[in-house]
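look at this one:
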Amino acid sequence: MPNTLVVGAGSAGCVLAARLSDDPAHTVLVLEAGQVWPATADIPAELLDPGHLPVGPESAVLWRYAGNLVRGKLIGGSGAINGSYFIRPPAAGFTDWNSERWTFDALLPFFRGLENDLDHGTDPGHGTDGPIPVVRTTDPTPFSAEFAERCAAAGLREVADLNALDAPDGFGRVPLAISGNRRAGPAITHLYPVLDRPNLTVVGETTVTRLVMTGSRAVGVEWVRGHEHGRTDADRIVLCAGAVESAALLLRSGIGPERQLRALGIPVVRPAPVGAWCTDHPEIGVEFPGPEPATSTVALEYVLEHDDLEFRPYTPVFTPGLRRLGVAHMRPTGAAELTLRSADPTVPAHIDQSRLLTAADRANLRAGVELACELFDLGFGPVDDHWLRANSGTSQHLSGTCRMGPANDEQSVVDELGRVHGIEGLSIADLSVVPVPLTRGPQATVVTLAAAIAACYAV
């Protein structure tokens, strides 16, 4: 029986499993729903190409949900298919976590220890000894270069290092987790280098369907692998299945809102606000005619951080003949909700994003669209609420379905170490636990979160 069973080999699961298995006396089993290739040499080349985003209808490495939400379903999770963006949140982004354990200063040793910043590694607050290579483009595509020029002409500040301590708002080159023009996701940087450890086992194409409970203790999991069904017990279970699947697994196991569980015929183990609040980054793509972006090795080379908005000149072509400048709200005040529609684990969870945009959020996005149009001298009609609703999507950065907080907080599901309130032997270590909107894209945050939680477990 393993000491720790990790559900999900996504970004968080890869880091957590690697860190826990550093102790040769600690056995770790990872169950991953997607494919696990024997070695990095066996991974399809297109999945290692940071300029390729395998998120289309033909992709076989995705979880798919209503509302065009997709998540990575393979070793490495969404970190194996994303744009390699690796920007840290600013210190203020952790203030509302309301925990001394989760301040920027407390997390800085983990940020530094994870990275090998090949551009700014010797600068204050950076690291050079970590497993994650961080680089920035040196030869931007014409669209990215023009974006930077127009930002400068508009009087916006250029920021040499968006991951610098106390980096101000402004535009700059995107820190990227890339090595030799290959995507350097957590599976590549953390899990594959240690797969030969005798105390670490990673099993793919195995979907965990339910937690096995004895009273108020989680003792194991039930799983499906093809036509095979099984159960595996462990001393401790850590969910790293992502903001959707970790929450869905709790709900199917009887941990969640009582009314929802009873309506689905799921016996209630513990009432909890699982899925009652979650968030994402609302985003609008401003498209306009122009030369199609030249082929790039990455999806984003520059961004502008400005008044809780992030402006993204995408290098991939979304619509032939058009450029796309994304405008994302990084601190929305609205919220989404995740629920189950069925106790059947083959039925995807449902995410209701109809209340993700408040009036204040719409006003901020409206200002962002207007600034985007000003930057590129675009004639644009009134940006009203109807247009915003019709054209807004999200950045696919869902978080917060199992919020972190003290036990007396009626909105929290886990404590500051990710331990599920009222349930022994069960923790969560992924974006599910983030209690407030992320102020930057999630990749740097989720690997740091997993490393910090792993360090607590190792004590």
